[in-house]
């Protein structure tokens, strides 16, 4: 029933978005962004220890800071497109491997980066007359979605994400083993350091893809815990994905009607959901 | 068979340890706190650097490839996994990851092995519970079950019975006995519980100051030996069923 309601709402959202004059590429970009964020949730569930997601780890804020700085000095969207995946991977490697931040520290760093980003944006809006405020809407609602109107590009991204999804389903036992820590993973004869580095790179690539496709809004599509474990049921997995995709279309509609700054209240909602799930499901006596 | 020749533990002492652990045997390592029990196990598992020669079935430990390691050694260091969100069943299945093909699902025999270990460790009622919310006794049993389910030739357990209740002690004891019943697997465990060690093992090694001070049959454990190495007075009685020692404290002493 809930799924049928979400599907109907998503269909209505897509029709309304097209009716208000958005490019047909926009729903596809948001679907790609929502899909990337869904896969990000899968990786987060496997990262030892499971960590806050895209918005609350500060990943989105860090990439946005990088994008604002690059745009300020180079004024080139292509430069931003090229630099974002690199910065995303560097951020992951620095915070999760070099600093090896725990769950709580990651959340604190994320909060600090979000605050820094907000202050910097407010400062530049008031103090820098050359600052292009429309670039901000690109960050909040999807950089690529805002600038690329062709349907072909997002239509090519989605199959790549499907391949990644199938691969993540096949590797579910190995990912679950990774979440059990170094002793468990190496005890099974697998190379922990290499697997962890690969996972962090994948996380960085998916973070940048989420920001490019659906911006900050894409990070709020994960409204529940991602399916996890050594055996993930296909029906459960697909329904969780469908929820994400439907919600991404509703966010696109909200962004089209209200403007990209809808992310501000959404950030608080996502934070509330984040704390609810982390406290409800994550804090166990033996953890 | 596990062989240690001239192994020196990184404890600042120069006592070399030379031991052989016959395949099919259950050996208990006991000793006062800080005597090197855990270090000896970790060295035998190749988890800490130790000078000397360690061989499994005649092969040097350092020559085992990453893929071969879990076939030979399953090591339980007493720690908990950092993420305890998986259900008990899913967690136990992970113990068989080294036996399945990479990116392929678990075979039916792996699922059956998980079922049988759940039954052996009396964990059926917790099958679908997240690992983190299990009672501490069942959680501990689940961690030991995980190591047993690996089905490696050598099972090394560091303090497996710490915090276990009387019922769980019996379950673990029976499971270890069943594990070596076929004669092709070896169990070595370190424990501070002398009664459990005497009731479970075929052989007891008493560690003291980084070396093996005594290598005895369980029946030989008596109050004098315990006084000498543990510096405490105890009463040692005999179990009426198997004649093995049971250690009791003197209340108030």
Q: What is the CATH top level name of chain B?
A: Alpha Beta
Largest interface summary: A-B, 32 and 40 residues
H-E order of chain B:
EEEHEEHEHHHEHEHEEHEE
Rg of chain A (C-alpha, Å): 18 Å
The CATH architecture of chain B can be named as: 3-Layer(aba) Sandwich
The number of domains of chain B is 1
What's the helical proportion of residues of chain B?
A: 25-40%
Q: Compute the number of strand runs of chain B.
A: 12
Secondary structure category of chain B:
alpha/beta
Q: pLDDT average of chain B, as an integer?
A: 89
Radius of gyration of chain B: 18 Å
The CATH homologous superfamily of chain A is termed ABC transporter involved in vitamin B12 uptake, BtuC
Unreliable stretches of chain A, pLDDT < 50, 5 or more residues? 282-287
Question: What would you note in describing this structure?
Answer:
The complex is a heterodimer of chains A (287) and B (253). Chain A is built from 13 helices and no strands. The two termini of chain A are 35 Å apart. Chain A has one domain: ABC transporter involved in vitamin B12 uptake, BtuC (Orthogonal Bundle), CATH 1.10.3470.10. Chain A is globular and about 55 Å long. Chain A has 287 residues and is mostly helical. Chain B is built from eight helices and twelve strands. Chain B has a six-stranded mixed β-sheet with strand order 6-7-8-3-9-10, with helices on both faces. A four-stranded antiparallel β-sheet of chain B has the order 2-1-4-5, with no helix packed on it. In chain B, a hairpin with an 8-residue loop joins strand 1 and strand 2. In chain B, helix 4 packs across helix 5 and helix 5 runs parallel beside helix 6. The longest helix of chain B has 14 residues. Classes of the chains: A mainly alpha (287), B alpha/beta (253). At the A-B interface, helix 9 and helix 10 of A face helix 2 and helix 3 of B.
């Amino acid at each position: 029933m809930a799924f049928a309601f979400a599907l109907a709402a998503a269909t209505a959202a897509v029709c309304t978005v097209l009716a208000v004059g958005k490019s047909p590429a926009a729903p596809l970009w948001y679907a790609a962004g929502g899909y990337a964020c869904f896969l990000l949730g899968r990786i987060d569930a496997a990262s030892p220890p499971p960590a806050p997601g895209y918005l609350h780890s500060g990943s989105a804020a860090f990439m946005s800071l990088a994008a604002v700085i690059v745009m300020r000095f180079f004024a080139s969207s292509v430069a931003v497109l090229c630099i974002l995946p690199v910065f995303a991977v560097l951020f992951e490697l620095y915070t999760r491997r070099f600093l090896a931040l725990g769950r709580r520290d990651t959340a604190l760093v994320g909060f600090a980066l979000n605050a820094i980003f907000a202050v910097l944006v407010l400062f530049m809006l008031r103090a820098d007359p050359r600052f292009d405020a429309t670039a901000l809407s690109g960050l909040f609602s999807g950089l690529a979605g805002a600038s690329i109107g062709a349907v072909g590009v997002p239509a090519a991204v989605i199959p790549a994400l499907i391949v990644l999804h199938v691969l993540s389903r096949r590797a579910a036992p190995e990912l679950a083993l990774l979440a059990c820590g170094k002793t468990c993973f190496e005890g099974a004869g697998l190379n922990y350091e290499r697997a962890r580095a690969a996972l962090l790179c994948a996380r960085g690539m998916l973070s940048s893809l989420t920001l490019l496709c659906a911006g900050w809004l894409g990070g709020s599509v994960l409204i529940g815990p991602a399916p996890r474990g050594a055996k993930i049921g296909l029906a459960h997995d697909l329904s969780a994905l469908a929820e994400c995709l439907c919600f991404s279309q509703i966010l696109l509609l909200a962004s089209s009607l209200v403007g990209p700054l809808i992310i501000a209240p959404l950030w608080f909602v996502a934070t509330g959901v984040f704390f609810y799930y982390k406290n409800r499901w994550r804090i166990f006596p033996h953890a | 068979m596990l062989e240690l020749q001239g192994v020196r533990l990184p404890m600042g002492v120069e006592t070399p340890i030379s031991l052989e652990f016959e395949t099919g045997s259950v050996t208990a390592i006991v000793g006062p706190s800080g005597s090197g029990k855990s270090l000896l196990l970790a060295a035998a598992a190749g988890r800490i650097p130790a000078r000397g020669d360690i061989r499994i079935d005649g092969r040097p430990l350092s020559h085992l490839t990453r893929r071969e390691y879990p076939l030979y050694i399953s090591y339980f260091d007493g720690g908990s996994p950092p993420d305890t969100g998986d259900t008990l069943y899913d967690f136990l299945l992970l113990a068989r990851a080294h036996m399945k093909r990479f990116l392929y699902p678990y075979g039916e025999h792996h699922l059956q092995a998980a079922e049988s270990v759940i039954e052996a460790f009396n964990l059926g009622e917790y099958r679908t519970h997240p690992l983190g919310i299990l009672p501490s006794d069942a959680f501990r049993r689940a961690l030991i079950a995980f190591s047993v389910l690996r089905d490696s030739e050598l099972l090394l357990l560091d303090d497996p019975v710490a915090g276990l209740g009387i019922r769980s002690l019996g379950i673990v004891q029976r499971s270890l006995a069943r594990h070596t019943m076929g004669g092709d697997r070896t169990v070595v465990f370190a424990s501070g519980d002398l009664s459990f060690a005497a009731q479970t093992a075929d052989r007891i090694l008493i560690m003291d100051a980084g070396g093996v001070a005594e290598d005895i049959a369980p029946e030989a454990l008596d109050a004098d030996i315990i006084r000498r190495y543990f510096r405490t007075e105890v009463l040692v009685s005999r179990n009426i069923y198997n004649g093995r020692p049971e250690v009791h404290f003197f209340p108030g002493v």
